[in-house]
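REQUEST FORM: STRUCTURE PREDICTION
Request ID: SP-0412
Submitted by: Lab K.M.
Chain count: 1
Length (residues): 120
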Amino acid sequence: MPGTQLTVTLSGGEVADAQAVVRALEATFGAPDELPGDENATVRTATFSAPAGETGGAAGQESGGSPGGGRLTAPVTVTVQGTPQAVRRAGDTLSRAFNAHDEGAAAGDQEEERQLRLEP
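STATUS: Completed
RESULT:
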């Protein structure tokens, strides 16, 4: 992979909940390609793409996602997919920003997937 790419799939909650989750990840991964915005969607996605070396390293991890995250109005199921390092960083960031429950992970040759349930 030429850079860092993380795909986030969100289900449950309102569009504002999905946006809160994505905003929490911005401290670590920078701005997403697009914020979730479809009020009628039942599943929302966001992709974070950054050339190698341009993601928020230790400083993003230090501050955590709480300041940019916000509160959830309902439980949200989040699946993060990408490199093992990106998935680990995303899980750590979301666990600091929200009440998170790990619901499992799967690993492939180059990518990993992890599912979290975030509670209000």
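NOTES: Helices lie at 15-29, 58-63, 66-69, 84-97.
Reviewed by: T.R.
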